[in-house]
Amino acid sequence: MTEREIPEQYLEGYAQILAEVAATGRRLTREELTSRRDLGELAADAGHGLRALVSAHLAAARTAWPAVPGSADSALAAVHQVIDAFSEGYERAQRNAVRQEEAARREFIDDLLYGRSDLGRLAERAERFGLRLSHAHAVAVAQGPTAYEEGDKVPQQVERALITRFGDRSILLTTKDGRMLCIAPGHQEEVLAHFAQQAHAATEGGRVAVGRAQPGPGGVVHSYEEALNALELAERLELEDPVLHAADLLVYPVLTRDRQAMADLVLNSLGPLTTARGGAEPLLKTLTAYFDAGCVAAEAARRLSLSVRALTYRLERIHKLTGADPADPAHRYLLQTAVIGARLLDWPAQDL
Hints:
Elements: H1 14-24, H2 30-45, H3 50-64, H4 72-114, H5 119-128, E1 137-143, H6 153-166, E2 172-176, E3 179-185, H7 189-202, E4 207-210, H8 219-237, E5 243-245, H9 251-256, H10 259-270, H11 281-292, H12 297-304, H13 308-322, H14 329-344
Helix pairs in contact: 1-3, 1-4, 2-4, 3-4, 6-7, 10-14, 11-12, 11-14, 12-13
């Protein structure tokens, strides 16, 4: 619809108001202002542009002007009041529409990430937000030092960076439970890689986890859960990598799938460390640093701020208590698996 095709219904009573105000010098009544606001809301709901509507009001004022007796100043004041009230109603309708759109978007995101809606209906709603759930999708989750909400500076900054580089590309950026999320088609790894880079930089050292691409309407929630699990694993294992890929961490869920078996391994292999002076924790940290350093004693000592001699003494103590030598390849796998299990199960802080 062009600017010249504004229906007359949005100007109803306008000429009469101008005539009366110009003749009497009075201001618009409360009822007249309310009627202008209501017309503004109706026009906004109908999809008319505010610029075209204001132009229509000015054109109508020019048409009525020759027939308006009395003070031109009063007529101009009336035009001002009418357009101001009309614009207020128009903006109110727009704010309501934005709130409704935000509510619908939030409801869709909740249903998408929790799998609470019928998958067929969910796929239909997804197209409104640029997602085709018949294709595979992957989810990246960014976690920073503070919680993030829609409209915060950091999510807006990251979103601008993505749009500047990739345009639309069927990308959905949002927040959930204080984290930033990016949902992208599974074959567009470069999108999630750029999101991870931008999110890590914007969160001042935050961590990003990327789930694997998963097919179908339920793929998004599966990829999202993988990314969350990766973040949880990184915290438990004290991983230092700023960007984690769920595909690289698949061994850990395998290790903990049989929790009781893992608990037995930890207790049988590392349980004797609890008898050491100071408890198991210092020696467990020694093993962790030793294995993380690739079993290089000098590097492990540096990480622990120990001398190599002190580290060697601790390793010998571990050997004596457990019967397993960390430096012996035949014992190393058992000990390292048990150390990973202890970190995953939060032992010895938690009883097994």
